[in-house]
Amino acid sequence: MPKKSTRRAGAPMAKRTATVKQHSVPSADTSPAKDASTVRDVAARAGVSASTVSRVLGGTYPVAASTRARVLKAMRELDYVVNAHARALGGATNKTVAFVVDDVTGPFYAHIARGVEEQASAEGRLCMLCTTHGDPQRVLAVVETMREQRADAVIVVGGAWEDKAYQDRMTHFAHALDRVGSRLVLVGRPPLGPGVPATVVDYDNEGGAFAMTSHLIASGHQRIAYLGRVPGLSTSSQRISGFTRAHELLGLTPHPKLILDGVYSRSYGYQGTRELLASGAEFTAIFAGTDMVAAGTLQALREAGVRVPDDVAVVGYDDIPVAMDVFPSLTTVNIPHEELGRTAVRLALHRDELPDSQHVVLGTHIVVRGSTRRPGR
Prior knowledge:
The chain has 377 residues and is an alpha/beta fold.
């Protein structure tokens, strides 16, 4: 990202120049790059060739342990700093793991990020956070940038848009990253297709929705509203699939008018619930697409004088901290957030050692709390 200028708009040039001269110091101190050590300096100190030093830096060719030790010792003595750009040109990765999310403030992403950062640190990698604000084109731009920077892995988190052009572009980047020794990692996203060099770390999204819906139906609810379907988003499609399959397995049919389109936000949960109540539709339970949607739902029901769970049961999905903070505490589907992050980094960085473990699906389970109860109890 370009650095913003610290100069105040309209400041006179002459005044700025005078200030710089007033605080000037000897040129030798302001130009450390002038005396910076080079690869040749390191080679001379270690008694090896410059190409051997490059091999040690790149880590792409075998070097005898004693030789590597001499090179590293020389680097420390000379305070040699690796030029990251030169390493990129030479084909080496830059010891960075990129973590790409829609919204850095979202609890769902934050807990996965913790797992990514912990594992990246354990693997000796720097974790770089990139946000896309829900823009699919921004995702593509970030992945391309990380390819140019030769990050060790580019971890993209969250549902994918079910658009062929978008999927084709992501497939292209997966191959492009692979060619430069990097790796595309999809977390909470479906695979791109056979033969695509990408690591996939998913969770049983559909199964979690199926289990939660089955729990509601087994508790006596037959008119369940689903709040927050997001058309074209893989995460939403999978949850709706589980919701529908649970109904069908028990001989029921979801009521189309009780499935409302929306977005995964608290504000939508609040507004969508108000609209649902105003419609006069009959329902005894609300399945919110995420816990944040459920938080808005609980507020709207409370303001309308609807008791939870006595009048209407409410459930969510994700099991983020807010699920315990709302009242009543929220029945929800637990996702192993941190384990998703740790697994993503571990599998990507050790893909050569674990070639048959590049597509894993972690389990989900429901957590029953105070927002559900049998109708009439």
